[in-house]
Amino acid sequence: MTYRAETAVDEPDPDGGAASALTDAAARRPGHPGLSTAEVAERVSRGEVNDVPVRSSRSTPDIIRANVFTRFNAIIGILFVVMLAVAPIQDALFGFVIVANTAIGIIQELRAKKTLDSLAVIGEAKPTVRRDGVAAEIPVGEIVLGDLVELGPGDKCVVDGEVVEADGLEIDESLLTGEADPVLKRPGDQVMSGSFVVAGGGAFTATKVGREAYAAQLAEEASRFTLVHSELRSGISQILKYVTWMMVPTAIGLVISQSVVEKNDWREAVRRMVGGIVPMVPEGLVLLTSVAFAIGVIRLGRKQCLVQELPAIEGLARVDVVCLDKTGTLTEGGMDVTEVRLLGAGDPAGGGEGAAPDEAYVGQVLGALGASDPRPNASLQAIIDAYPEPADWECTAALPFSSARKYSGAALAEPSGQASGWLLGAPDVLLPADDPALGEIEDLNTQGLRVLLLARTERELDDERVAEGVRPAALVVLEQRLRPDAADTLRYFAEQNVAAKVISGDNAVSVGAVAGKLGLPGAEHTVDARRLPADREEMATALEDGAVFGRVTPQQKRDMVGALQSRGHTVAMTGDGVNDVLALKDADIGVSMGSGSEATRAVAQIVLLNNSFSTLPSVVAEGRRVIGNIERVANLFLVKTVYSVLLALLVVCSQVSYPFLPRHLTLLSTLTIGVPAFFLALAPNKERARPNFVRRVMRYAIPAGVIAAVATFATYLVARSHYTGEGARDAETSAATLTLFLISMWVLAIVARPYTWWRIGLVLTMALGFVIVVVTPWLQDFFALKLVGTSMPWTAVGIAVAASLLLEVAWRWVGRRFPA
């Protein structure tokens, strides 16, 4: 069979510079063989290569800078140097803790970068380039100026260029220009990198590569690592801003007061002042957030899930609506032709005008239609597998499949010399609403079968009314292969109160039957998207009420995502086809299959490289683990910050010596916050993510911090009146430390709920650590902790117990008074 595509070649711009390379004959000869090997080598030597690095994550220097050069590390670093100069090493332990924490953060993020980069290479697009007349897939970075790049449905234009071959080539430039309608490209037209093919095929010559290409220039302004909106990150930044505002005046007051109180010993004044400032810094909160995200990336990477933007893990955990494209998500890509049913009026070849065609003739037409498309979709591939290419048939023109049209077509020259035009597509689009064949099709659709109509058209393929008045010839019945893991995944979403909406371009009844087989709630009530209201509010109501939507156009998918978002829903969109790109881009989280088109992989935040829909629950669970656990540990850090600031203010107002040395608070922070926070941040957590992160954290951190500060200061004042003589200061500090430790342990016990065996063990282990310090002589000396007598230590315990009861009351009260 011979295939003729309309091609034309325009002369290149005669201007000099990079464009002059395009005058080479190799890319312009009839048949367009592309560049020769020698010409490619020449361009490489001149540096005319698409050398833009694909950055799937931050560079190593960026990671190190982000973890080392922080505002709080600078504060802690200065105080660390000061303490080394004026105090024993045990009062500078907080500096070593910061070094260790920062190192852990860097190591974990570098591990995540390694995972991310290796997965990005697996999922990287490889365009087809024609060289020496042979087409081959090559990495994006090996394209040179003047290369002839082939295009098909779903392919992304990776460099700028000029079209030299076009066969119904339609390119969507909406990601660059915002214009939603695809643009029909003809030879001589320009294509921009970042756009993608929605229908047809062709080839273009690369005119701009590397950093000169349009998409590369956009990438320079906003790297691929640019983070999507993250309430967690922005919330923590907001909290740190508040903390800084509190720290600065409090620290200044503390410096002045301790200088006055300890005027005879400036070294002691510095030690007490640093002891008051250091615990105000919630340095580990930022670190643990980075570590939690990094470990999340590594865990998902082991399951072949590429997280292209880290907070996407968080975003999917907040999702309450998942929009699923049926093909490639609920069903596998492949299909099988199970039956061809002949209809009454197709071609006269079977015996006169209007006579029904015979089965052999229809098989030849289907074989010719399959051979007419160099890049068949799944439906056409099933037809190609069932009907081989017939001999002596010629395709004189082709109309590629478009998800907006819902059909494809070809003009055929038959061996008899007769010319015929054929369309293959959705029956309910090609047939009038009252056609009797639609009843038969409806029965097939209710069985979950996919049905295509083969019909003859008397119009030219480029006629906008080509589908009007067609004569049906046969129904092609296709059986779709259900994904074995789809039912379990839908059941998981139902259990997690995440609404699943199946949005497909296929017949609504057929889609509903497939969804029903998989147990999707509401699958029996299907909606034809052609009848959906255009008004956003009315559309949102219909979407919330329904679960299965068929005959959805690409633009409608985008509108549906927007309508759901207008109702406050956090929407995830999954898909693998080029018709899903617009919706994927607009959704809060876009999820693409690894086998999907280059365009879908480019705009999605999450790519399932194993093409397994069942990986989604793992991503949701990972996001919930990260968010829920960071919220837990944020309570620990911020309670410490609040009580530290308030203690400093009480000391300033009372004009007394600050009760603690840095070593005391380093010990308390390690046992009640640092170590337990690390384990709690990595623990399983299935709680659904909720909005208002800052409000929820601060609603408890503030009252708990106030209670801890007041109780500790009360113990300190009682101890000051109780102890006299030599060693009184150490005894006062030890009593106050005991109270603060017990209160902090109760905060930890509250945050660790609901209890499991390991959480109980964690709390008891931290308590045991403090007991060991208190009873071990050399640790008593090292940390300057020694409980003197019995009455004051028991008084400290009694104040701590009363404060802990208040903490419990506050915890329950804020839960009712300020619900999340």
Strand content: 15-25%
* Order of strands, widest sheet: 9-22-21-20-10-17-19-18
Terminal Cα span = 67 Å
Radius of gyration: 34 Å
Question: What is the assembly state of the chains in this entry?
Answer: single chain
Model regions low in confidence, pLDDT < 50 over at least 5 residues: 1-30, 219-227, 346-354
The number of strands is: 22
Rounded mean pLDDT is 81
Q: What's the tally of helices?
A: 27
Major β-sheet, in short?
8 strands, mixed
3D shape: elongated
Question: Notable features of this structure?
Answer:
49% helix; elongated; eight-stranded mixed beta sheet; seven-stranded mixed beta sheet; disordered N terminus; single chain; 27 helices; 22 strands; 820 residues; alpha/beta
Overview of this protein structure:
The chain has 820 residues and is α/β, with parallel strands linked by helices. Helices cover 49% and strands 16% of the residues. It contains 27 helices and 22 strands. The strands form three sheets. The protein has an eight-stranded mixed β-sheet, with helices on both faces. It has a seven-stranded mixed β-sheet with strand order 1-12-13-14-15-16-11. A hairpin with a 2-residue loop joins strand 2 (128-131) and strand 3 (134-137). Helix 3 runs antiparallel to helix 8, helix 22 (662-681) packs antiparallel against helix 25 and helix 23 (693-722) runs antiparallel to helix 24. The longest helix has 39 residues, at 616-654. It is elongated, with a radius of gyration of 34 Å. The relative contact order is 0.10. Mean pLDDT is 81; it is low at 1-30, 219-227 and 346-354.
